[in-house]
Design goal:
The longest helix is centred in the middle third of the chain and has 29 residues, at 90-118. Helix 1 crosses helix 8 (202-214), helix 3 (57-64) packs parallel to helix 4 (90-118) and helix 4 packs parallel to helix 6. Strand 2 (26-31), helix 2 and strand 3 form a beta-alpha-beta unit. Helices cover 47% and strands 16% of the residues. The model has no long low-confidence stretch (mean pLDDT 97). A seven-stranded parallel beta sheet has the order 3-2-1-4-5-6-7, with helices on both faces. By secondary structure, it is of the alpha/beta class. The protein has one domain (2-225): NAD(P)-binding Rossmann-like Domain (Rossmann fold, 3-Layer(aba) Sandwich), CATH 3.40.50. The chain is built from eight helices and seven strands.
Length: 231
Amino acid sequence: MNILITGGSRGIGAQAVRHFAGQGHRVRFLYEKNHAAAQSVANETGAEAVCCDVADKAAVDRAIRDFGPVDVLINNAGIAHYGLISQIGKEQWDRLFAVNVHGMYHCIDAVLPGMLRKQAGCIVNVSSMWGQVGASCEVCYSATKGAVLALTKALAKELGPSHIRVNAIAPGVILTDMVANVSPETMDWLKEETPLERHGTPEDVVQAMDYLVRAEFVTGQVIPVNGGMVI
């Protein structure tokens, strides 16, 4: 299969590249700016790295133009903001929506014509448990991830008759760069609040991705990968 993964240079995305490339699939991944990390993942896996800001529609179109029909799109690219709503300016608010929501639309719009021609395809969108329940001091991030869930459910209904499946994953606290600046005290508290008493790993999320790619009678669903923190 041809698999396109966004945000593939680190964290969950990099683990997804390793996993699906290791299964023998042809993988191309997009990344924004960490050239060294992207090249390292490409060298390790044989996947193809393409520098691309998913917020730029024209750049997304160029990035996949010669890849061929995409069988699986994994919309993983995302950014976060921690702080009171009064501490985020309009420019940063708009940037989160540009990457987390508009970026998904850009990628879906780019791959959809090929999926429609084949009458087959799989789209996996990475949301967050905060998209399900909201998080204090992460209002904008929660709003973008809530939008991803609504997009997923609506698109699944729209594309189902074309045999294109659309699902989402809602990770909890996952040990990636996104939580690197969270204080140890907060991380300990989050672990205590998690029934399975540990934080998640990128591989935990990728296991859910693998399931959704293979699950041919599952669409419009949100798979929580949060250790029971949100039930």
